[in-house]
Write a structure and sequence with these properties.
Porin; elongated; single chain
Amino acid sequence: MAKKILIFGLFLINSITFLAQREKVEYLPSFDKNKIHYGFYLGLNQNDFKFSLRENANVTDANITVTPTAGFNVGLIADLRLHKNLNLRIEPGLMTNAKKIYFNHLALPKDSVRDVSSTYLHVPLLFKFSTDRYKNIRPYLLGGVSYNYNFSSNEANQDDNSAGQFRMKSSNFMYEVGVGIDIYLYFFKFSPSIRGVFAINNEIKYDDDINSQWTAPVNYMGTRGVFLTFAFE
């Protein structure tokens, strides 16, 4: 699914860029001179988990697998112009997605599968490095960090995996890198981008039993994801 999102995003960006290059009229010629401007974004995401296991664990990487599904994200944009080719952006929004985690070393179905549905407050702080404008297009790179608050983490839940409840930490930090293109249209600027998002901290909430067959083998669990974002500014 992540590969499909990536291919679709590249195809869409390429198609719109081709059409924008054909336009002879330069739209919004003074847009980038604004010190501050605002906008909003919509997009798709697919988040996975990267697991690393303890050296003395009795399971292998193949014993814990994840099946992700596509999710949705929406938010606002505030952009501060620092230089003609450098902007600082904050993009607070909401992100939803769902995953299934399979603990393949456990025999019983009720023990071996955990459904993880998450709703995040996603707050990235990003630097945007842009090329000079060419006609109605302007490619750019993005990089920065983000804070994520997981409303569905169940961190405070007293039940753990022994009662069928998978728990995660509520507060998490990520770093993001991406590439996109500004396309200047008659009334607004349209900016599709593709981003990779990677967790910094360990997101798993360990079970109360230190020998838990679910969480004891796990040394680290962190989000890794692909975002396809459509910004309107």
